[in-house]
Write a structure and sequence with these properties.
Layout lengths: L2 E7 L5 H12 L3 E5 L12 H5 L11 H12 L4 E7 L4 E9 L4 E5 L7 H4 L4 E6 L2 H15 L4 H20 L8 E4 L5 H14 L2
Parallel strand pairs: 1-5, 1-6, 2-5, 6-7
Antiparallel strand pairs: 3-4
Helix pairs in contact: 1-7, 5-6
Length: about 200
Amino acid sequence: MLKLLGIAGGTASGKTTIVRELMETLGDKGQLIGLDAYYLPFSDMNYEERTRQNYDHPSSVDMDRLYRDLLELKKGKAVDIPVYDYVNYTRSDRTHHISPQGVLIIEGLFALYDPRIRELFDLSVYIQADADERLIRRIGRDMKSRGRSLDSILKQYKKTVKPMHEAFVEPSKRHADIILPGGALNRRGVELLKSHVRAMIG
């Protein structure tokens, strides 16, 4: 039977690192959906218009499609999820196949935001990390892997990332079954989380 694990937390809080460890723990019984895959494509806009959208607000995510896909998976049906193109700020032409088996991790800023989706999770986790540390990590990540300039990263952080985190992401931690302070640096906490995940697969 498919198990769903929701993992939320602020930008660059260590979610990806922890998810990587959990996937290694799960082996072939683990699958992953990054919530970024469900960003709306804004296909009716040109590139400049798409770059000006607030991607740190939950309204930028197609929660309805995510909910439908998770329901299909819960019913034992496979789904093909979108693949997001960070450079062009839209969905790519590719999809990713997810089968209804093992443990499926749903990871992202707003993983615990939508009550319909929260109710589907067998376990929900919030990764908490220091704001300054998260900003430093985000700068390194976005410059290296997403083709962004330092100036654009800092402007976006000040205009949308920080206020949206405080308004929508941070408050969602009250819905978590487990809050993991310190992110991946909290080794005792990560190992305990791995134990929970092992229990999910029996």
